[in-house]
Each structure stands twice: as structure tokens, then as C-alpha cells.
Amino acid sequence: MNNRQTNFTNLKSKVDSKSIGIAFGAGGARGIAHLLMIEALDELGVKPSIISGSSIGAVVGAFYAAGFTAKEMKEILDQLINPKSDSVFDFLLKSDIVKMFTMFDPQFIRSGFIKGEKFQNYMKSHLQVSRFEELKIPLKIVATDYWKKEAVVFEKGDLIQPIKASYSLPGLFTPVKIKNRILIDGGAVNPLPFDLIMDKCDITIAIDVTAFKAQNESEIPPTFDSVFTTYQTMQNSIIKERLKFLRPDIYIRPEIFDVRVFDFVKADLIFKQAQPAKEDLKRQLDKLLV
Prior knowledge:
Structural class: alpha/beta
Order of helices and strands: HEHEHHHHHEEHEEEHEH
Shape: globular
Distance between the termini: 21 Å
């Protein structure tokens, strides 16, 4: 064996000996940027040994844990935002819900505007797994107990309902009931759940897709824009405080501007803005592995 082969073997041994954990954070449509971070890992030829996710991060984390590549997830995203027929996102794509809520005084149903069952069924059919135990990579999903006001972590048993609970944004999606607990969006208590996996891996990666401040700060926001933005401000504060006392080995926050919670149609813009963060992740991870 020559020196070049020996060096490659030694490098591969070091990479294989270090386990990687990745946490995908909450952030609505900005969670599309998570796909670029998975793409970075794909290009480096590494796979995490454990994954955690909150809200949109739970959705992405589930697909990744089920064995989907970034390329395959991009194809699924394209089907959702550029439907050839009826899409699970039709309600969001064909109308500007923020303008609709601002212009009218809609009749609130008891627990939320959207049941979310259509997207739940879509996930069930495309994931092709329905239990945590069927995933290729261990996964932890965070939801919030509405009444106890505390985090609930799922890692075994049924998979689909905890995912739905984790992205059930209060007031918009109906809460989910699991074992007599009423659950809402995981981002309310833990929008970036890297703390759940730090003791399970050698290198912890946290992908923060919470909102940056808007570039246009002079206009008064529409009603529901202000509600969602206030929620995002709360998430930013939770993460900022946690990082003062606990830090992952790699913390990545893509600089994504002017993308609202449901701006999924801005996928190309999100990918463009998140590209520098992808390259940063590759540099940092490559350095830690080598």
C-alpha cells in the first residue's frame, strides 16, 4: 500500500470513528434551507448517527432519518410547490393567507384553521414508514404540551402523529392529542433541539433557520404577519439564551431575509440565500473530521 492509500485509509478511519448528530430547527418555509445542509453532508460522504427536529425540522428530519437524500427531498418539494394536480399546499399556494386574514374577519373554528390531515396523509404515503423503529437513523422529535407548557420528546412508537404535533403552529393548525396530552408546535419550547443529542454523538451540528430581521422595517405589518413574527421573536430569544450556556460543535444560521412562515414558493430564493451557510457547514465539519 502506497502513502496516498495509507493517508486515505487513516482519514476514513478518523471519519468513521466520529459520530455526528444534527438538529434541524423550526422556521416555517425557511426550513427549506435544511435540504442544503443535508446536501453538504451528502457531498462530504457522511451520515449522522442521530437526528433531532422541531416543527419544520421534524418534517425534514423524518425524511432524512428514513433514508432520503437531499436530491430526493428537493424533488418532493418541487412536487409540492409546483403541483401537476391537486397539492397538499393548494390552500397556501393559491391564496395569500396573511392578506386574507387581514382583509376579513374569519370565523375561527374551535382549535385552529387547518386540520393538517392532508399533509399528514401525504407524509405517510411518501415516507413509507410509520414508526420510529422503522427509520434508518434514530430520530427525536419535539412537541409542546399545551396545558403543562413543557417539551415532549418522541423517539419511539408511532411517527406520523408526533410529526404533525411538532409543526402544529398555534391558532393555525389544530392541536394533536396523543395519550391524553394536547400537543402544539415544538418551536414554542425548543425551536433548535441540539441539546437532545449532544450526549449521543461526538460532533453536534445545529441548523438554526429562525428569522433574521426584515430589510424593510418602516411599514406596519399586517395582522397575522405580526402574530407569526412575534412567535418567531420568541423562538429567537429561546435559542439566544440557550446558546449562552450550551453550544453545539457547529452552529449554522443561514442569512435568509424577507421570507415569511408560509413562503414555500420562494424555495429558489431560500436556496440562493442559504448557499453560503452550506459551504460554511462543509468547511467546519471537514475541519472537525480531519
